């Protein structure tokens, strides 16, 4: 894993992480592909859909933790498949038991099965309960700056607005809203959902996002392991470009070589 300057580490709930790429663990053809793609991504945080993936609920079936061990990765339980606050809260309480008191979680409460758009009233309700229950809540939400501020005020440790619909691969459809959320937030902002390829990840980082979470963009690629490497590089390049500071956009040409002091 490449070295990072301590001053530029991603910090979530007080813990530093070397990688700003977070990856999912679903949709791969088998656990071996999951392992190889995860290793290629060099991600530190791996999100797990508790309702869909075995992490010990079924002792007679292969466990994801055999290929993505908690000793090597930070496991991020999520509530994919939950459509109300009550189910989301119960799911994360179950995850805490399965993972020996694990506090860092990803909350997502969906509005419907067609769009998988977040149900924000139920998300806010669940977030309030979970924060009071001692969880460190990273939260999937709409790209609405007002809702994002409300989640931060509740005490969520990271805001995760969608770039576009989950699994759509459409990339960032509303960079202006993302920029507003980034500008106002005092906690990390990570794009969650909609990334399709490496350039989408780089754009998110160039906007100033603190990280990107993705699953389908890697697992659904023709070569998931190669795409995982591409996403790692895109995240790093986008972050470097953001820190470097891009030139201003202008409606006039500006020669690379100055006219003054010409030899002839």
Strand fraction band? 15-25%
Structural class: alpha/beta
Mean pLDDT: 91
Q: Describe the main β-sheet briefly.
A: 5 strands, parallel
Q: Name the overall outline.
A: globular
Helicity, as a percent range: 25-40%
Q: What is the radius of gyration? A: 19 Å
Distance between the termini: 51 Å
Low-pLDDT residue intervals, each spanning 5 or more residues: none
Strand order of the largest sheet: 5-4-3-10-9
Topology as H/E string? EEEHEEHEHEHEHEHEHH
Please report the number of helical segments.
Answer: 8
Number of strands: 10
Descriptive terms for the model:
264 residues; alpha/beta; 5-stranded parallel sheet; 3-stranded parallel sheet; 10 strands; globular
Short note summarizing the structure:
With 264 residues, this protein is α/β, with parallel strands linked by helices. The chain is 35% helix and 16% strand.
Q: Can you walk through the features of this model?
A:
With 264 residues, this protein is of the alpha/beta class. Helix content is 35%, strand content 16%. It is built from eight helices and ten strands. The chain has helices at 31-41, 85-98, 120-132, 145-154, 175-184, 198-207, 216-219, 224-244; strands spanning 10-12, 15-17, 21-24, 45-49, 74-78, 104-107, 136-141, 158-161, 190-192, 211-214. It has a five-stranded parallel β-sheet with strand order 5-4-3-10-9. Strand 9, helix 6 (198-207) and strand 10 form a beta-alpha-beta unit. Helix 4 (145-154) packs parallel to helix 5. The protein is globular and about 80 Å long. It starts with 9 loop residues before the first strand and ends in a 20-residue tail after the last helix. The model has no long low-confidence stretch (mean pLDDT 91).
